[in-house]
């Protein structure tokens, strides 16, 4: 035991504590009334009278400066806009939507060009051929010839005894290529049309999301301003108590610091308003220097897709209406046509058909005419004449086997690979569509459940803040309690607004995931029980706060 002195002291302490407990337990039990003093012990000395307690001196009055309310950074001039106007502007001025439409026009022009390959080409023209000097005949004989010819009519480049080198009416090509290129061009047009619809839906969804961001930013600013005003009221109460000496100066400083925090939140909310307005201007192709203001005075849950529709039925609707799937199917059909074209190409002939008609004439010194002279001699001059009508018909047919057939085989294998890639891309798009529908479906239900939770939290926090504020005004509670309640109330308001905004966003996402553009849902009437009385458009400084009571959507 001497090696561990700490253990020895531990055992001694335990023995002392045991003896104390034994002496206490040996005392007879005494029934005490609440608030009564214990009876004096026989061995205890008589109690001494306690000296009178002195009240703590009242703190001297302190001059507490009032909290500072920062000025707004938002310009007063705003341009009001609603969701319907934003969607209409996006359909007219959004560059990405206009680019997708231009691609459809381009594909349609290419389809018309491919179909026009069935028609022959018309060549109208003339040619003049003059030669002076030696020429070699096919047998090697050299002739000194001074000749000329002229052709005028349907076609051109008619020289010497050959046919018209540029036929007047000509068709040249491979019938298989012409037919299949036309069919492929039709599928390309369908691809561009589906892509145009997909881009339009996506951009309108982005515009809707940007509008909801603007609406949320303005709502958050209204909440921040309201919370700051309430914090300013708490700071005023605590500052008055500190001036009269009935409260602590530390409480007044803490409340004033809370007001400064709320000032920072208001400035951040105003920054979010300007950022959301600039983002919406970008999507609408507007000048970002102007500030847009969402005129929706109320933020209410807006159900678009009826809740009783099960997820399996929603997936079926999306598989039949999503433009991305239609684009993938058109891509597969185009790939199959290219594969068939590659297989048929070696057996399809190449044709060159031409027809020319015009006036042709000329002459040379070898075919001259004599002109009598006054002295009786005859002057020999080249003859240029004998003009008459001329017609030429040309037909050329031949088959091509590219690179001893290896080139055709490689092309077939290439198109087979393209067909498999198109099928894989369609499967990828199919999985993406199903995932988007299922995700949006789950998000709508979770966001709606969050609305109820956030509403109850807002009601409780609002009631708690009012009670703590009244207790603080009546000097029954601590200022730190009302500040904590105010902080909880601000978070509850923000959560409630965010839950409604995210629910509406999820509804639009689900609607677009089903293949419908967001603009179509605006034509559907909303039940009168859901929409509260319309409010006038408010400027930025008087945006209404989120109301704590919202009528639940009828579809849920």
Topology:
Layout: H1 5-25, E1 79-81, H2 83-93, H3 95-115, E2 121-122, E3 124-136, E4 142-156, E5 166-167, E6 169-173, H4 175-244, H5 249-283, E7 292-294, H6 311-321, H7 323-344, E8 350-364, E9 368-372, E10 378-382, E11 385-398, H8 406-473, H9 479-513, H10 518-521
Short description:
With 556 residues, the protein is an alpha+beta fold. Helix content is 54%, strand content 15%. It folds into 2 domains: 79-113 and 186-336 and 410-542, Outer membrane efflux proteins (OEP); 124-167 and 351-366 and 381-398.
Question: What keywords describe this structure?
Answer:
single chain, Outer membrane efflux proteins (OEP), 7-stranded antiparallel β-sheet, two-stranded parallel ribbon, 11 strands, 15% strand, elongated, disordered N terminus, disordered C terminus
Characterization of the model:
With 556 residues, the chain is an alpha+beta fold. It has two domains: 79-113 and 186-336 and 410-542, Up-down Bundle (Outer membrane efflux proteins (OEP)), CATH 1.20.1600.10; 124-167 and 351-366 and 381-398. The chain has ten helices and eleven strands. It has helices spanning 5-25, 83-93, 95-115, 175-244, 249-283, 311-321, 323-344, 406-473, 479-513, 518-521; strands spanning 79-81, 121-122, 124-136, 142-156, 166-167, 169-173, 292-294, 350-364, 368-372, 378-382, 385-398. The strands form three sheets. Strands 2, 3, 4, 5, 6, 8 and 11 form a seven-stranded antiparallel sheet that branches. A two-stranded parallel ribbon has the order 1-7. The longest helix has 70 residues, at 175-244. The chain is elongated.
């Amino acid at each position: 035991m001497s090696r561990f002195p700490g253990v020895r002291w531990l055992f001694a302490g335990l023995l002392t504590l045991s003896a104390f407990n034994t002496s206490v337990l040996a005392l007879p039990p005494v029934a005490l009334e609440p608030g009564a003093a214990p009876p004096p012990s026989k061995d205890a000395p008589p109690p001494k009278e306690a000296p009178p307690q002195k009240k703590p001196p009242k703190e001297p009055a302190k001059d507490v400066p009032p909290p500072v309310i920062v000025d707004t950074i938002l310009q007063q001039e705003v341009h009001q806009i609603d969701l319907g106007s934003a969607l209409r502007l996006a359909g007219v001025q959004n560059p990405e939507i206009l680019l997708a439409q231009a691609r459809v026009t381009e594909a349609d022009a290419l389809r018309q060009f491919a179909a026009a390959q069935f028609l022959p080409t018309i060549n109208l023209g003339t040619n003049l051929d003059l030669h002076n000097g030696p020429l070699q005949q096919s047998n090697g004989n050299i002739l000194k010839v001074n000749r000329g010819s002229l052709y005028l009519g349907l076609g051109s480049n008619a020289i010497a005894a050959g046919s018209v080198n540029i036929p007047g009416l000509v068709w040249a090509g491979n019938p298989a290529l012409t037919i299949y290129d036309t069919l492929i061009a039709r599928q390309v047009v369908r691809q561009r049309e589906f892509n145009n619809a997909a881009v339009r839906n996506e951009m309108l969804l982005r515009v809707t999301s940007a509008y909801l961001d603007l609406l949320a930013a303005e709502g958050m600013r209204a909440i921040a301003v309201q919370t700051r005003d309430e914090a300013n009221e708490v700071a005023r109460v605590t500052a008055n108590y500190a001036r009269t000496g009935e409260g602590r100066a530390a409480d007044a400083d803490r409340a004033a610091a809370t007001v400064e925090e709320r000032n920072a939140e208001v400035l951040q909310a105003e920054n979010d308003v300007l950022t959301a307005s600039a983002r919406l201007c970008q999507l609408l192709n507007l000048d970002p220097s102007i500030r847009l203001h969402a005129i929706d005075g109320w933020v209410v849950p807006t159900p678009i897709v009826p809740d009783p529709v099960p997820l399996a039925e929603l997936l079926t609707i999306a598989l039949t209406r999503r433009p991305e799937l239609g684009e993938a199917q058109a891509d597969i059909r185009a790939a199959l046509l290219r594969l068939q074209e590659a297989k048929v190409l070696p057996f399809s002939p190449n044709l060159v058909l031409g027809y020319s008609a015009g006036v042709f004439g000329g002459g040379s010194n070898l075919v001259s005419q004599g002109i009598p002279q006054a002295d009786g001699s005859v002057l020999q001059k080249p003859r240029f004449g004998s003009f008459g009508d001329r017609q030429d018909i040309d037909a050329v047919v031949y088959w091509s086997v590219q690179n001893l057939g290896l080139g055709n085989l490689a092309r077939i294998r290439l198109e087979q690979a393209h067909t498999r890639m198109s099928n894989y891309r369609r499967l990828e798009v199919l999985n993406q569509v199903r995932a988007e529908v299922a995700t949006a479906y789950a998000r709508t239900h979770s966001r709606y459940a969050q609305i109820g939770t956030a509403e109850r939290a807002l009601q409780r926090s609002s009631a708690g803040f009012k009670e703590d504020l009244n207790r603080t005004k009546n000097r029954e509670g601590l200022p730190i309690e009302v500040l904590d309640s105010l902080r909880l109330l601000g978070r509850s308001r923000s959560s409630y607004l965010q839950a409604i905004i995210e629910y509406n966003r999820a509804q639009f996402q689900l609607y677009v995931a089903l293949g419908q553009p967001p603009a179509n849902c605006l034509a559907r009437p909303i039940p009168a029980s859901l929409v509260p009385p319309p409010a006038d458009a408010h400027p930025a400084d008087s945006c209404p706060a989120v109301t704590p009571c919202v009528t639940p959507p009828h579809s849920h």
